[in-house]
Amino acid sequence: MDLSTLIKEETISLSLEATDKKDVISKMANKMAQAGYISDVNLYTEAVFTREEKGSTGIGFQVAIPHGKSKGVSKPGLAFARLAQPTEWQSLDGQPVSMVFLIAVPEEQAGNEHLQILAALSRKLIHEEFRNQLMSAKTAQEVLSLIKTAS
């Protein structure tokens, strides 16, 4: 799966200021709405928060991949944020999160699309070099290039 087709420059934040993980998710969801991926932010964020209650999406390596399937999503999309301050996420390794990928999938496409995006992201994020490149990227365009070349 080519993840670069799901993400736009306007859904990338290189120093997102947020108070907690709900604030991170809400701010990223608003950017996805502005980019045309989400039609109803409240409906979508409710689905993401419900998913977070079932188990943390903090996968370790200071990375979280929150996601939601919702009727509030217009088309599959991806957002990336590097956080201004590490944020507690109840991650598997107990460490706070510094990078977040937010996945949005329309409810009717939930099954397969959602798993394909998660699998593709996980395959990239397991590599320390890729994570380090994301942490040091200076522009949204650079993040896009990293995601495209890693696809």
From TrEMBL:
Q: Which CDD domains match?
A: PTS_IIA_fru
Name of protein: PTS system fructose-specific IIA component
Q: Which Gene3D superfamilies match?
A: Mannitol-specific EII, Chain A
Its localization reads:
Cytoplasm
Domain PTS EIIA type-2, chain residue ranges per copy: 5-150
**Superkingdom, according to UniProt?**
Bacteria
InterPro entries assigned to the protein according to its UniProt record, in alphabetical order: PTrfase/Anion_transptr, PTS_EIIA_type-2_dom, PTS_IIA_fruc, PTS_SugarTrans_NitroReg
Q: Where is the signal peptide?
A: none
| Keyword Phosphoprotein part of the UniProt annotation | yes
Species, as recorded: Tepidibacillus fermentans
One GO biological process term: phosphoenolpyruvate-dependent sugar phosphotransferase system
What SUPFAM superfamilies does the entry give? Phoshotransferase/anion transport protein
PANTHER family, per this entry? PTS SYSTEM FRUCTOSE-LIKE EIIA COMPONENT, PTS SYSTEM FRUCTOSE-LIKE EIIA COMPONENT-RELATED
> Coiled-coil stretches, from where to where?
none
List, alphabetically, the GO terms of the cellular component aspect. cytoplasm; membrane
Extract the GO molecular function terms from the UniProt entry: protein-N(PI)-phosphohistidine-sugar phosphotransferase activity
